[in-house]
């Protein structure tokens, strides 16, 4: 702090001494005073030059901050110290700004990676920023629409009402913009205040959730309906047995019908439990290598028994043929494979009129996959029903399905088992000509032995 006044005083004293010495030789008075004044002016000029140098360097801006001190000398003195302190402060400030900018970019990157739409609105509800997901949901352009009022861009009446009542904190469910997707999308939109009048707008795709809720409601309604029908029949027969005095034949008839309805409910519950256990895990917990011929023998034997029960006097009602490439082994859960194959063969028997034919085949394909197919000459299925056949409780003809003892869950179980084994389910049908159901298992689950072909009637 004292260096600056001391240096001025020393220069003045030196100038006064030089003036006194010159005046002594020249024989003039007051030269010491003029020498001190001249030294002061010299000090002021030098100090002004240094100050000007500091100002020029400060005007250099970022170039001054990033300059290498070793590349040039500073103004020196007090002004040099001032300049160094300013430069250090500017460098610290720039580092803090860079860190804040980096944090901001990380926050924006996190918002950009969010599966939800994020829109930042100012106090006039103009768009400050939005992520790509919000652009998809609301049909926005992240560059063009910045600074635009969102009410001018999203003209849905419910959304505009929601914006005016944003303080209520309620949730809005609305459709996404038409150009956002070819399929209808439902959005859940919520608004949260922040930073004195600004708004954080969040949007979430709830299409799957709403579809799941609808499917759950439909499932519960179907289960209730499927159980209520046999319960109503049972209740009627119980009431008949309690209020009337039927003879032995009538009592026996009532008991037979009650047994059928009880079996129907038991099959329904069993299928529901099977479907639930299949949906709990995406892959089978246990896998073994199964001889395809053995699997076919079991499902075809069950088909014969079912066909015999539908025929007269215990005679089979259908011609059932079996074709197989052998020996072939299929890796998977044995019970699940038997369930899937048995459901397809059982459906073919139930929905093929007496005298029709059913062909069950398991053929190794050239690409190493195994195709299990069931072909029948049954009633056939109209094309509009085929995409929905694997839905739970979906029936083409409800009356015919119930009369044949179906629960409406068989193909849903087949589809789930196919998915767990990486197989694909294919359906081809023509009304009045019959249907073909195929399960194609991937090559990595198929193991072949010596290739030979056998065709036989069983």
TrEMBL record:
Q: Which PROSITE patterns does the record match to this protein?
A: HIS_KIN
Which Gene3D superfamilies would you find in this protein's record? 1.10.287.130, Histidine kinase-like ATPase, C-terminal domain, PAS domain
UniProt EC number: 2.7.13.3
Q: Which GO terms describe its molecular function?
A: ATP binding; phosphoprotein phosphatase activity; phosphorelay sensor kinase activity
Cellular component GO terms, alphabetical: plasma membrane
Any one biological process term the GO annotation gives = phosphate ion transport
Q: State the membrane topology.
A: Multi-pass membrane protein
Give the subcellular location.
Cell inner membrane
Q: Show the catalytic activity.
A: ATP + protein L-histidine = ADP + protein N-phospho-L-histidine
Which EC class does it fall in? Answer: transferase
Q: Which InterPro entries match?
A: BphY/WalK/GraS-like (IPR050351), HATPase_C_sf (IPR036890), HATPase_dom (IPR003594), His_kinase_dom (IPR005467), HisK_dim/P_dom (IPR003661), HisK_dim/P_sf (IPR036097), PAS (IPR000014), PAS-like_dom_sf (IPR035965)
Question: SMART domains in the record, alphabetically?
Answer: HATPase_c, HisKA, PAS
Predominant cellular place of this UniProt entry's protein = membrane
Region forming the signal peptide = none
**Locate the Histidine kinase domain: which residues?**
222-445
Q: Which UniProt keywords apply?
A: ATP-binding, Cell membrane, Kinase, Membrane, Nucleotide-binding, Phosphate transport, Phosphoprotein, Transferase, Transmembrane, Transmembrane helix, Transport, Two-component regulatory system
Q: What does the protein in this record do?
A: Member of the two-component regulatory system PhoR/PhoB involved in the phosphate regulon genes expression. PhoR may function as a membrane-associated protein kinase that phosphorylates PhoB in response to environmental signals.
Protein name stated in the entry: Phosphate regulon sensor protein PhoR
Q: Which organism is it from?
A: Candidatus Symbiobacter mobilis CR
